[in-house]
Specification:
alpha/beta; Helicase, Ruva Protein, domain 3
């Protein structure tokens, strides 16, 4: 087990001439107990391929390599990339990649295990999880986001990320993680989350075009979650510059589909996926209502 501690982390960063960059989310995990917890919860099998985003100094990477077939480690900081390339130069089952994960063509993988940059959690979720075959995930993220993901049956507390994430993934476990186990310590509370892909993804979400619409739809109606669904949809369509469907027609269309004009907060995740499909068909496939 890696014995790197806070002091050693600081020394290595000083030697590399690296001042932790808040914009890049550079908070370096140094606590071996947390690393051990992550490995235990990951339940990695020897034939699995791991994606790690932001490996930093490789405290977690070093352990992931012991249990997996391959690790793809994406590090955007060039000095850290060079450090990791040298550190793991004799290891065959790792590829360290100096690239922005949000712009990368990520190789196939089974699982993502990462202390991800907190400032781009949403875009990373969309890149990694919101697709036809998402991987399992063991991630350290901001606690406030973790709480929104793990909301169970409290529909009035749903947010955009609650609905989007739960349409593709199933939250399994959540643990609070001390921010003092990182250098520098972030100003936010943290959680370790374990998530897995849904076994039966709604067929509407299997195409790129449909998924993009679903994510726009959820982003468009959730700011109006305390309004009735017809009003929220009307505002969404207005923002989409779709002008052919006034509220009475939307109301009638929903009635024809046996959907009541209730507040957005009354709808469950799966119901909102179904609703996005209906609105997609209304806009792009229906000649009239």
């Amino acid at each position: 087990m890696n014995n790197m501690n806070k002091r050693e982390t600081q020394l290595i960063l000083n030697e590399l001439g690296i001042i932790p960059n808040k914009r890049l989310g550079q908070n370096f995990l140094f606590d071996k107990t947390i690393v051990k917890k992550i490995i235990l919860e990951s339940q990695i099998s020897e034939d699995e391929v791991i994606l790690e985003i932001g490996p930093g100094l490789g405290a977690l990477t070093e352990e992931l390599l012991k249990f997996s077939k391959k690790v793809y480690a994406y590090e955007i900081d060039f000095k850290l990339f060079q450090y990791l390339k040298d550190k793991f130069s004799q290891i065959e089952n790792i590829e360290v990649i100096n690239e922005d994960i949000l712009k990368a063509n990520i190789p196939p993988h089974n699982i993502i295990v990462s202390n991800i940059p907190y400032s781009i959690t949403g875009p990373i979720f969309e890149k990694v999880f919101y697709n036809e075959k998402p991987p399992r995930g063991i991630l350290i993220i901001e606690n406030s986001i973790a709480e929104r993901i793990f909301i169970q049956n409290k529909y009035k507390d749903f947010s955009r990320i609650t609905v989007s994430f739960n349409a593709f993934m199933i939250p399994v476990k959540k643990y609070n993680i001390s921010r003092l186990k990182f250098f520098p310590a972030p100003r936010i509370d943290l959680s370790l989350i374990i998530v897995k892909p849904r076994e039966n993804l709604n067929p509407f979400l299997l195409s790129d075009k449909n998924r993009a619409f679903f994510l726009r739809f959820i982003a468009g109606i959730m700011p109006y979650k305390n309004k009735n669904i017809v009003n929220a949809i009307s505002l969404f369509l207005k923002n989409e510059k779709v002008i052919n469907f006034p509220k009475p027609k939307i109301l009638q269309y929903l009635k024809n589909q046996n959907i009541n004009n209730e507040k957005v907060t009354k709808f469950k995740v799966d119901e909102l996926v179904k609703l996005s499909k209906l609105i997609f068909e209304l806009i792009y496939e229906s000649p009239s209502i």
